[in-house]
């Protein structure tokens, strides 16, 4: 009996593949711009470059093994997918936009310069500054909606009965 792959498994595979490709690209560009040997143009030391390389290799290995496990319906694939979702949600919630919106909601300040110094929000994502409160409210709702959407997808992938059945032993 063939079980259909749940949508959250497809989404996890697509996002995991996307992050693998982006991470691989970032590592290649990083080493092209700044080779391992330190120079005046690139003052990063050898130890830091090696740690970066080790982290990248470990992450890419886990991500590729997770993709393989998700494709082959292995339990380790599901657990690596859950680990991926936990990291993805943590990065999403700690982004500058999310932090600013949640700080605004929790502290109730209506004035951005009082929330953060000018140096912080002058380079806000996409160089946005809110001269009116309506722009901030619209951005707050869109940020909260996107965060809740990904949290719901992560919860479905982690807890749903259909996903558990999909990864159970085949008959």
Write up what this structure looks like:
It is a single chain. This protein is an all-alpha fold. Helices cover about 75% and strands about 0% of the residues. It contains 8 helices and no strands. α4 packs across α7. The longest helix has 27 residues. The model has no long low-confidence stretch (mean pLDDT about 80).
How are the SSEs placed, and which strands pair?
Blueprint: H1 7-33, H2 46-71, H3 75-93, H4 96-107, H5 112-115, H6 118-121, H7 133-159, H8 161-167
Helix pairs in contact: 1-2, 1-7, 2-3, 3-7, 4-7
The assigned structural class equals mainly alpha
Largest sheet: none
In terms of quaternary structure, the protein is single chain
Termini separation: 7 Å
Work out the helix count.
Answer: 8
Strand content: under 5%
Total strand segments:
0
Taking pLDDT < 50 over at least 5 consecutive residues as the criterion, the unreliable ranges are none
- The shape, in one word, is flat
Instruction: Give helix and strand order, one letter per element, not per position.
Output: HHHHHHHH
**Average of per-residue pLDDT values:** 80
**Share of helix among residues?**
over 70%
Short description:
This protein is mostly helical and 171 residues long. The protein is 74% helix and 0% strand.
Keywords:
single chain; 171 residues; mainly alpha; 8 helices; flat
């Amino acid at each position: 009996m063939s079980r259909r792959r749940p949508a959250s498994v497809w989404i996890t595979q697509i996002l995991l593949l996307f992050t693998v490709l982006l991470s691989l690209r970032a590592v290649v560009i990083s080493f092209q711009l700044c080779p391992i040997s330190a120079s005046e143009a690139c003052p990063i030391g050898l130890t830091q470059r090696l740690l970066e390389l080790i982290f990248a290799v470990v992450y890419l290995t886990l991500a590729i093994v997770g993709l393989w496990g998700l494709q082959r319906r292995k339990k380790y694939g599901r657990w690596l997918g859950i680990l991926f979702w936990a990291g993805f949600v943590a990065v999403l919630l700690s982004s500058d936009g999310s932090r600013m919106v949640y700080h605004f909601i929790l502290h109730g300040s209506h004035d951005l310069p009082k929330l953060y110094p000018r140096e912080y929000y002058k380079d806000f994502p996409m160089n946005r500054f809110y001269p009116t409160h309506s722009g901030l409210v619209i951005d707050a709702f869109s940020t909260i909606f996107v965060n809740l959407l990904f949290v719901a997808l992560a919860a479905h992938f982690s807890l749903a009965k259909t996903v558990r059945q999909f990864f159970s032993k085949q008959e």
